[in-house]
Amino acid sequence: MATPVAFRVFESEALWYRRVWRGSVFSSFLNPVLYLLAMGLGLGTLVDANLPEGVEGVSYLTFLAPGLLAATAMQTGAGEGSWKIMAGIKWRKSYHAKLATPIGVRDLVFGLMLWAAFRVLLVSFVFAIVMVAFRVSPLWQSLLAIGPALLVGVAMAAATTSYTVRIKNDVNLAMYFRFVVIPMFLFSGVFFPITQLPEWLQPIAFITPLWHGVQMCRALVVGVEPVIAPWISIAYLTGWIVAGTALALAPFRRRLKP
Amino acid sequence: MTNLIEARGLTKTFGDFTAVDAIDFHVVEGESFGFLGPNGAGKTSTMRMIGAVSPISAGSLTVLGLDPMKDGPQLRSRLGVIPQEENLDLELTVTENLVMYGRYFDMSRSEIRARVDDLLEFSQLTEKRDDKVEALSGGMKRRLTIARGLINDPDLLILDEPTTGLDPQARHILWDRLYRLKQQGVTLLITTHYMDEAEQLCDRLVVMDKAQIVAEGSPSSLIEEHSPREVVELRFAVGVLEEVSEQLDGLAKRTEILADRALLYTDDAEQTIHEINEAGFEHEAVLVRRSSLEDVFLRLTGRSLVE
């Protein structure tokens, strides 16, 4: 039976990753540990001392960890959709090599999204285990939180890809990270509840994919009531995935098959 | 003999720019067919349409009996493409590059393994099989790219500027490999802006200039048709060439004045040199050679190929 064509793209990404995985596995483990140590425990001690009732009823570490899980997934997705895609189109031209074979543009994009999902899954899984080690939540709750994290990660991968294929050079990518990814990371309710934001800023947090992931992860890990119904967030993030992937197809075709 | 490729009025436009302007050609099974022309003549655009990675703008094109616009994946599964720009996976080993590429064609791992040894031997990379591609020389990378293009046992091999950027020795090794493929009956499609390459490798070729085909034939028939048999090259001291250029007219069948020398096309070089000496030109050096495709190109376009 023939291997689905998009899966052949996934397979090639995996073969390549096998060669370069060491650095990324280390950082995907080290990042959450460092953040949870510095922010969760370090800063958390100060926060907890000033808020005996806790942040939304729990310790700062417990508040932070599920948000950070979603944020890590978001950043992984953005990473998969940015420099890597630019390299494949422009620097390495590895996508040109793929498209000279039976692989088509649609297969390529689907395969890349499949791979991004796998990378987000890996990173989220490691994070979930670290959360258990920090006694933030029991294993099964931590593992459940991977679900929303995966949605956020793939939504970001798809959206970022559809941006990357439209830009000419990587200066724009640096701007994208500085003015979109990092602000999203800081102001989507990961480090503090968005009710702390000025009222006019709050609606912006609502439209970021990260906020939806944060509130779902937090609901699953901490057990607090989600701010809006999870099915709305799930539908919203799925919409990002579908729209991002669809919007990437035409510019991919324009650039790789002119 | 069946036609593997048939193009009629084949056209490629990018907005207002016409890269390929209504060209007609056909390629017969088993032949080695060349596109000769300077950079920007439309060779690569033509290759990309044949390789089903660029939609045609007008005209008709059939490759291996298939329509590249409709049967892209099916067609590409039977082609081997060696692009002008290197796009190997540098972090992977030589063998891994071949395996990965074979998987794109959905070949099983055992099928690929069965071919890899032969391909490594053919491309003289057996000893480098477990080396990372990063560490290979330019010539080795190019040979690996050719091996990669052969992994699916293609019916047609497309080579875009196969030796551009290689040193002379690496070029000769590559020509030897391509010549072997030709002898095995593989149909080759080659673009080049090197005359010697076209003369060495092509049974038949078309000369392209400014998006159009300006001549077609075998290298020898093109030379015979468009250029007298011999060329006398005359070099003069700085500044002298401009003065004497008009007086040189009439000494040979045709005269071309280049920046640094004059070319006199003639059927009898000895006689021409005799006449030059009779007329008493103060030249610095004389060289007699056979007419080449370069001269054909100069004749057809008024420009030299490599500028």
Report the strand count of chain A.
0
* Main sheet: strand order of chain B: 5-6-7-3-8-9
Mean pLDDT of chain B: 90
CATH class of the largest domain in chain B: Alpha Beta
* Rg of chain B computed from alpha carbons, rounded to a whole number of angstroms: 22 Å
Fourth CATH level, the homologous superfamily of the largest domain in chain B: P-loop containing nucleotide triphosphate hydrolases
Q: Which residues of chain B form runs of ≥5 with pLDDT under 50?
A: none
Distance between the termini of chain A: 32 Å
Question: How many β-strands of chain B, per DSSP?
Answer: 13
Describe the protein.
The complex is a heterodimer of chains A (258) and B (307). Chain A is mainly α and 258 residues long. Chain A has one domain. Chain A has eleven helices and no strands. In chain A, α2 runs antiparallel to α5. The model of chain A has no long low-confidence stretch (mean pLDDT 93). With 307 residues, chain B is of the alpha/beta class. Chain B has two domains: 221 residues, Rossmann fold (3-Layer(aba) Sandwich); 63 residues, Alpha-Beta Plaits, CATH 3.30.70. Helix content of chain B is 36%, strand content 28%. Chain B is built from eleven helices and 13 strands. In chain B, strands 5-6-7-3-8-9 form a six-stranded mixed β-sheet, with helices on both faces. In chain B, a hairpin with a 2-residue loop joins β1 and β2. In chain B, α3 runs parallel beside α5 and α5 packs parallel to α6. The two termini of chain B are 38 Å apart. Classes of the chains: A mainly alpha (258), B alpha/beta (307).
